[in-house]
Design goal:
By secondary structure, this protein is α/β, with parallel strands linked by helices. The chain has 14 helices and 18 strands. The protein has 3 domains: 166 residues, 3-Layer(aba) Sandwich (Rossmann fold); 162 residues, 2-Layer Sandwich (Dihydrodipicolinate Reductase, domain 2); 83 residues, Alpha-Beta Plaits. The relative contact order is 0.13. The mean pLDDT is 95.
Length: 435
């Protein structure tokens, strides 16, 4: 087995070093699966003097990433992230007829339609398994493993930082700010955590998953997001007493009305596997009409888990060298000429069950007045929890509603806020039962 697939690696950060390590550690088995050896021959680095946790012997290092694209390599692996210069580097590789493997979820979600069109025009492979959920092969699951199914929904914990923060809030009773500070100390969250905690990272990943699941072009701009900052420790505790856990989920559903694409904190029944997935792990639940519910759990980030996904794509490239592009599995699971734009629904148009937390004066008739307003709007109460006040504090009501359109929930909240005994601090979170 003397044939070699020569890899040009753009970026030698955590994931890039993981790729070099795993290719070396599992070299024999990878070669047996790929039909040839896979070797990194060239790589770009910002600082060649910095120590790295992998063996770089035999790898030519370049300060200019475009030098890697122009080097004598068979495939480009892009691991620098972001939009620019990653897009220009990938475009240059495609123009030279070189297949590309990338872990860049932002680029695929936001510019993927045009990049994939360029790759198709050149007849080269663009693979991005590592863009979503690290070591979980969820893109191959949707694109290949579940192709017999009409997939109607998927939901997942697809941001490990948010999951770690919510786990700390649940297990230790920490505030959001304290749990975020812990995540930053451990390296799970950046100094500026906005990208993670406001749902942008998960929205990128959800846009990719929904496109492959539903056969639609990538539509990142249609993903509605809500961040974690509104979740208080009190909500975590009340949810537990009601039999739920709070998780930040990316949710995609399709129906006759259109496609829902949303990322937000969500109450999940405590016996569901998503509710039991803690720490920095990822978990994705997919529902197909033939297979029913399937759930995939694993490490969603880190050097070697993400490297696992990158190398799986490299093995596909190795197997397909010289093949007609018509034999490639379509990047989005459906032939480009069969992708169809589907209407997408805003938050105001979705239907969901809701968790409402109200601080109210400890007075007679309060509960009756609140439930009367809900009844007038045809909102059923599935569960209610009343916490008696301590000393002179207000009482707390936690309510789980039936499934209703969001605009009706908004109307109910407006009417409840008008009641003189309801305090301004009203919390509203969505609930998913996965029936």
């Amino acid at each position: 087995m003397n044939e070699v697939l020569k890899v040009g690696l753009i970026g030698l950060g955590t994931v890039g070093q993981g790729v070099v390590r795993v290719l070396a550690t599992n070299a024999e088995e990878i070669a047996q699966r790929a039909g040839r050896r896979i070797v990194v021959t060239d790589a770009s680095v910002r600082d060649a003097s910095r120590a790295r946790d992998c063996d770089l012997s035999g790898i030519r290092l370049h300060a200019d990433p475009f030098a890697v694209v122009n080097a004598d390599v068979d495939v480009i692996v892009e691991l620098i992230g972001g939009i620019s210069p990653a897009q220009e580097l990938i475009a240059a590789a495609i123009a030279r007829g070189k297949p590309v493997v990338t872990a860049n979820k932002a680029l695929i979600a936001e510019r993927g339609n045009e990049i994939l069109a360029a790759a198709r025009a050149q007849g080269v492979l663009l693979a991005f398994e590592a863009a979503v959920a690290g070591g979980i092969p969820i893109i191959k699951v949707l694109r290949e493993g579940l192709t017999a199914n009409h997939i109607d929904s998927l939901a997942g914990i697809i941001n490990g930082t948010c999951n770690y923060i919510l786990t700390q809030m649940t297990a230790k009773g920490q505030s959001f700010a304290a749990a975020l500070a812990d995540a930053q100390k451990l390296g799970y969250a950046e100094a500026d955590p906005t990208f993670d905690v406001e749902g942008i990272d998960a929205a990128h990943k959800l846009a990719i998953l929904a496109s492959i699941a539903f056969g639609m072009p990538l539509q990142f701009a249609a993903v509605a997001t809500e961040g974690l900052s509104k979740v208080q420790a009190q909500d975590i505790q009340l949810a537990r007493e009601l039999g739920y856990r709070i998780k930040s989920l990316g949710i995609a559903k399709r129906s006759a009305r259109g496609v829902e694409l949303r990322v937000h904190p969500t109450l999940v029944p405590e016996d569901h596997l998503l509710a039991k997935t803690d720490g920095a792990l990822n978990a994705i639940r997919v529902h197909g009409n033939a297979v029913g519910q399937t759930v995939y759990v694993g490490r969603g980030a880190g050097g070697e888990p993400t490297a696992s996904a990158v190398i799986a794509d490299l093995i596909d490239v190795a197997r397909l060298v010289g093949a007609d592009a018509r034999h490639f599995v379509p990047a989005l699971g459906f032939g480009a000429d069969t992708l169809r734009a589907l209407p997408t629904l805003a938050f105001a148009d979705i239907e969901s069950a809701y968790y409402l937390r109200l601080q109210v004066a400890d007075e007679p008739g309060v509960l009756r007045a609140i439930t009367s307003i809900l009844a007038e709007l045809d909102i059923s109460v599935e569960a209610i929890l009343q916490k008696e006040p301590r000393d002179d504090e207000d009482a707390t009501l936690a309510i789980i509603s039936s499934e209703i359109p969001e605009h009706r929930c908004d109307l109910a909240l407006a009417k409840l806020r008008e009641l003189p005994f309801v305090r301004p601090d009203v919390s509203r979170l969505r609930v998913e039962h996965f029936a």
